[in-house]
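Need residues for this backbone.
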């Protein structure tokens, strides 16, 4: 898969309360049309007046979960990006509320790959979370310990079914 080709011409909303993060993500998504928002209010207005192929939402500082609800209500696939809310609980909450990917900011240099994973999986009617697990489970193992899925095996098994 070539992320640049998958993302070419796609309209992406990027929301974060740090301009340097928005600038970095916009550079990584150079083949896409990127709208940017630094606040919940800005993002809400953009979500209500535009259609997006995908959205990248920070959790903290911009009311990311509220924006996730708005985006999912408009059937926009969402990738949650976080530094401060990096925990098993916020990861699970993101998925329960409809996010397709949960990415630590440590991994944001691969944002193009992750967004392409989402769009490609949806286009081919595949389970998006399997690709997420394939790419980020080792990160989760290092961050949360090798048994992080054992806390709620039914949830993870249902999410990661083929």
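Answer:
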């Amino acid at each position: 898969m070539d992320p640049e080709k998958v993302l070419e011409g796609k309209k992406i909303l990027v929301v974060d309360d740090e301009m340097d993060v928005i600038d970095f993500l916009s550079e990584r998504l150079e083949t896409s049309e990127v709208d940017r928002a630094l606040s919940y209010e800005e993002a809400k207005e953009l979500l209500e007046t535009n259609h997006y192929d995908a959205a990248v939402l920070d959790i903290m500082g911009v009311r990311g979960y509220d924006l996730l609800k708005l985006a999912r209500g408009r059937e926009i696939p969402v990738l949650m990006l976080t530094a401060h809310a990096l925990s098993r609980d916020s990861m699970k909450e993101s998925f329960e509320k409809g996010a397709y990917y949960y990415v630590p900011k440590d991994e944001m240099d691969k944002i193009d790959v992750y967004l392409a994973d989402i769009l490609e999986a949806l286009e081919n009617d595949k389970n998006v979370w399997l690709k997420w697990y394939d790419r980020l489970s080792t990160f989760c193992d290092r961050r949360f310990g090798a048994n992080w899925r054992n806390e709620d095996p039914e949830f993870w098994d249902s999410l990661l079914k083929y």
